[in-house]
Write a structure and sequence with these properties.
This protein is mainly beta. The protein has a single domain, classed as Glucose Permease (Domain IIA) (Distorted Sandwich). Helix content is 7%, strand content 24%. The chain is globular and about 45 Å long.
Length: 270
């Protein structure tokens, strides 16, 4: 889900059920005369007005930002929350071993964050880079509750090459082991999946950015992954992920460290 936007409950829950599974201090009165109050640091960069549809060719090779089998629950230009500056973002959750048994009623019985398969799962850097923005310490709401105001949530932005960045949102508070300026390797843990910000249930919001200040997504392709095309039948991905696909890192990929559980078939449809 995109910062500052809300997803339609009906649309998001239908797909989720199938796949799921520091503020600055004011100067004292004695020293404030003739001085401006210290500005509060911004928790996140501003959003651009539009996405960068005509960005230069992608040069960073991006792998999946997780291990195991996951599903795509919201795709690019979905007309949900992935539109405007966020038109090229993706949302992921781990694939359920038996999604047919998980209807909306059963899904809504998951009242605790820990009951959602995504919660606490490691989020990995999809390519080497340098951390350019980190925000941590924001609260999480229980599942199916939304704040009435925009909350930045906990997130990380990594610069890979000039004008090529990745963004990871809704992370678990206290789970981010990196700081601004750190160099990261492909497959290095940069946080854990959570429910911070404007999220309804735990999921990973992932985007490739052509600019991070302001934030603007751009078209991209992923590499080194497989798509499940039939029960336990996997084919190399074509780079363009779509809603409803169940995917996993290809064997031997830099970010692949565990095979994950084999999900059931068929994948969900939006």
């Amino acid at each position: 889900m995109v910062p500052g936007k809300r997803r339609s409950d009906a649309a998001s829950l239908a797909v989720l059920a199938c796949l799921l599974a520091a503020a600055g201090a004011l100067p004292s009165s004695a020293t404030a005369r003739g001085k401006k109050a210290a500005a509060k640091p911004a928790p996140e960069p501003p959003a651009a007005h539009i996405a960068l549809a005509s960005a230069p060719p992608q040069t960073t090779v991006l792998s999946l930002p997780f291990d195991g089998a996951w599903g795509v629950i919201q795709g690019k230009d979905s007309q949900g929350t992935h539109k405007g500056y966020a038109a090229y973002a993706l949302d992921f959750v781990p694939a359920e071993p038996n999604p047919q048994a998980l209807d909306e009623a059963a899904f809504r019985e998951r009242k605790r964050l820990a009951e959602h398969p995504c919660y606490g799962r490691p989020v990995l850097a999809p390519a080497p880079g340098r951390v350019v923005w980190v925000h941590d310490g924001e609260r999480e709401l229980p599942p199916f509750r939304q704040t009435r105001k925009h909350e930045a949530g906990n997130f990380v932005i990594i610069e890979h090459r000039k004008d090529e960045y990745t963004e990871f949102r809704h992370l678990q508070p206290g789970s981010i082991p990196v700081k601004k300026g750190d160099r990261v390797l492909a497959g290095q843990r940069i946080g854990r999946c959570g429910n911070s910000g404007n999220a309804v249930t735990p999921h990973l919001h992932f985007a490739f950015l052509g600019s991070f200040d302001p934030i603007a997504t751009r078209p991209f392709r992923l590499s080194n992954y497989e798509v499940m095309v039939a029960p336990n039948v996997w084919k190399p991905g074509d780079g363009d992920l779509k809603v409803g696909q169940i995917i996993r890192p290809a064997p031997g990929d830099a970010t692949s460290r565990s095979p994950g559980r084999a999900p059931s078939w068929p994948p969900p449809r939006p």
